[in-house]
């Protein structure tokens, strides 16, 4: 668990300060409640009160314990999470109350000392109108791309850290398409899924999520791997059955996303050192017909650009996003960034 300090500053940025603090401290819903995972109250005195006397007042000893839970990230990867449970929440709070102040002071001091590790996360971005034609060759060297805003804050926000490798992305739009380009450092290119709408997230992958409506639950997911295999789907809600159901019902309307991939290295050979890969693509607005089609200038959508990086250099796959996701799931649209569609020349 972590102690977070978030504040909204100029330019629509959200600032995060803090470390994991050995996963022992957290502020919950404004309450000064500290969850001390490794705390064991057994014998001796705690806060000046004898343990046996306190147990007697509560009608018997109550144990504070933790259990491990495997949590799915939304794409099939299992992640470990520690849950703290108590026989009585009221008794638990009473037990740790004497040390809350000291623990909070320690955590806050550590947060101040870790200012160098602060993550600066833009939460608002512009999608600028393309000023000329774009050829999908993976290079993104047309003059129009020079006008696009660069998105490069790809982080594992839920783990309070930056991505292990660099990712830079850009977006543009016109009357027919939304265009995207992503450049990714990658020392170990990996991809073996070739079919459309396969389990592409089990490879290196670049993903785009768009949620056009503020009130409606529906959102879109697009993926591309280094083999240029694609996944594209509409999810009517997070509770509708997930990607398996969405893929099986994709026949209700063909998607027409087009992409070109450029690889800088040898695919699927961990013995050498690669340098990265890039993808350039476009998605027609007709693919968004389930939510009313494309935007007009001034409209704002929720969105997240995300990445999986599997590598011989990582102890575990590196999941990152430009959005400040509070949990390791790319489907947390309540945490998505805001994308404003603006006219050329802005």
Can you describe what's shown?
Helix content is 13%, strand content 34%. The protein is globular, with a radius of gyration of 24 Å. With 346 residues, the protein is mostly beta strands. Strands 8, 9, 12, 13, 14, 15, 16, 17, 18, 19, 20 and 21 form a 12-stranded mixed beta sheet that branches. Strands 1-2-7 form a 3-stranded antiparallel beta sheet, with no helix packed on it. The chain has a two-stranded antiparallel sheet with strand order 3-4. It has 2 domains: 112 residues, no CATH class; 218 residues, Immunoglobulin-like, CATH 2.60.40. The N terminus is likely disordered. The longest helix has 25 residues.
Radius of gyration: 24 Å
Proportion of residues in helical segments: 10-25%
Proper CATH architecture of the largest domain:
Sandwich
Overall geometry: globular
What do we call the CATH topology of the largest domain? Immunoglobulin-like
Largest sheet: 12 strands, mixed
User: What is the element string, with H for helices and E for strands?
Assistant: EEEEHEEHEEHEEEEEEEEHEEEEE
The first-to-last residue Cα distance is 41 Å
* Beta-strand percent range: 25-35%
Which structural class is indicated by helix and strand composition? mainly beta
| Total number of beta strands | 21
Outline the low-pLDDT stretches: 1-74, 76-89, 100-117
Indicate how many domains the architecture comprises: 2
Keywords:
346 residues, mainly beta, Immunoglobulin-like, 3-stranded antiparallel beta sheet, globular, disordered N terminus
